[in-house]
Amino acid sequence: MARLSVLCSGSSGNCTYVRYGSDTVLIDAGVSARRMTKMLCDNHVDISGIKGIFITHEHTDHIKGLRTFADTYGIHTYINAATADRLRESGQLPDERLVYGIENGETVKLGGLEIRSFPTSHDAAMSMGYRVTSDDGRSASYVTDLGIFSEDVLDSVKGSNIVVLESNHDMNMLRLGAYPRALKNRIAGEYGHLSNADAATAAVSLVASGTARIVLAHLSKDNNTPELAVGTVSAALSGAGMIEGRDYLLFAAGSDDGREYIF
User: CA quadruple 155, 156, 161, 166: dihedral positive or negative?
Assistant: First the structure.
């Protein structure tokens, strides 16, 4: 039996864990080390059982607490070379004795968990998502911070029991909001973030492939609401003939969440 929790999500910071038995991996470390420690302890996660931290990309909301947390507890960080170079330049890379490389399409086995990376389209040095599979065959995928949910991404995550899926913005809220035009274009572009409508299309494909739980994540506090995100995705799933509670369960992660899902 495996468990997942989106501890926090959004522009204020991102951190998710997957655990199986006594083995845990983190995906991103985008809040302070102190806050991560508290959230993990609140969920009764043994920090000594964290086998690795897997970084998606170098933006601050994904790595803010990485160096302090990894160095304090001596936890290995898995990161691709391009992203490591960016963090080295900014002084945010952990002790390099704790840093291990993982490139797109590579797999790492840590205890009872196997972690496979895949590329995502985002305006970063080399953005990645992850699929984590436990020894009992259950799998969770993490796919946020991408402008396009491509066929390659679908192939990487389809069949996962649970997917953390970006649903960043409502297009009308973004279009009518106060952001500068350049920022709006970046968010809506192919290297930006998925809209609710994009997430809805992806969710239909995911549920059709056997995914039973979807957690919408990285919701914008300015250009989205949980109600809009869930409503848009639910409507698409219903329109495809899929019934909540029978075919899928749908959730939206808050900026400071911590709910744990068994999958």
Answer: negative
Please check whether residue 57 is in contact with residue 104, taking contact to mean a CB–CB distance below 8 angstroms: no
Residues in the chain: 263
pLDDT, position 52: 98
**Of 153, 169, 157, residue with least CA distance to 218:** 169
Are 210 and 203 in contact by the 8 Å Cβ rule? The answer is no
pTM for the predicted model, two decimal places: 0.97
Structure tokens that stand for 24 in this block: 């845990």
Q: Which residues contact 23 (CB under 8 A, 6 or more apart)?
A: 49, 51, 110, 111, 112, 113
pLDDT at 3: 98
Compute how many other C-beta atoms are within 10 angstroms of the C-beta atom of residue 215.
Answer: 24
Stretches in the chain below the pLDDT threshold 50 = none
- pLDDT score at 169: 98
